[in-house]
DNA sequence: AAGATAAATTTCGAAGCTAAACAGTACACT
DNA sequence: AGTGTACTGTTTAGCTTCGAAATTTATCTT
């Protein structure tokens, strides 16, 4: 089960090899090869999330903020979305999204205004400051990512990208989309 | 920056290719190859976390519970640890760990007793029910993991495992251990 | 016009965390 | 022995964020 759910492993964390050995002791039918991949994936992602978290924190925004900024930028051009759309996208309730937008408006990352063409709706729009924060975060991230992959040749990279997308397709197919909010950082 | 921090992307999530294209539009100097790897890693991990979360939920335990169970099992043999040790390992304060242990004692996943050889300390010990829950979770996880990797040959698997551990070594070296609790699931 | 439907917000409460103060114990040093 | 110091774990108080349910406002249907 790799690292399976929970754990941050910051203190006296065992090495990957130690951990796999321990799992094998405690759980007989464990494929070490599979476990190695899964555990490495988990650990890698945790370290990446920590790094990203530091970067956004350095920019003075929370991970929650980041999620919203990203969704808005990905929506393209005028960078506008409705709260319920955002809520669905991020996997939380409209109520929670209202609260989150409140905070982000206060931080001047987004604006909120009624949609005059359909006054039931609300338009959340990225501010220039919000967009700037996103850009800064991207700049920091690319540095980190290039650093992370520095040992891999171009061929290694394409190979890795292909394998990962293959796995991704598999898991997305198995688990179409059914939402579940699990405190992800992705 | 891949998905960088936050996001769950459950609703009308763009495909990986769409997302990379969008990022390139919004952020000129982006290496698509790097982005593909990083985004795939992020998405893959999110899906895995969702899957693991469902499994533990099906067993009636929370992700918080899971973290503690895992640490205790990894500690080996008598499955005992002190609260502060656990707190360090999981990256939270001793106070938070006290609360968490309270809950887990109520759920009969662990026991708490004073260490009579050194009455300052407290011993948190896995119950048989706690161990059983861990085993069940492992069983569920191995099924999922084998399913995830079904398209990969044995050679693919060793290659992937090697590349991932290489990346992991890189990031662990760069970011030795400095703790940061970022709501990870690993 | 009257409901039905939908979007967003408000209110209330729960979960989980941290910081700070506190209590109990062990150990070192005189 | 006695005292100071350090450390462990718990308690308390407060904060942040989220969810559920009720509420408001606007639109659509018939």
Automatic annotation (TrEMBL), chains A, B:
Classification via CDD domains: HTH_ARSR
Any one GO molecular-function label of the UniProt entry: DNA-binding transcription factor activity
Coiled coil: none
Signal peptide start and end residues: none
Pfam families to which the protein is assigned, alphabetical: MarR (PF01047)
A single GO BP: response to stress
Descriptive protein name: MarR family transcriptional regulator
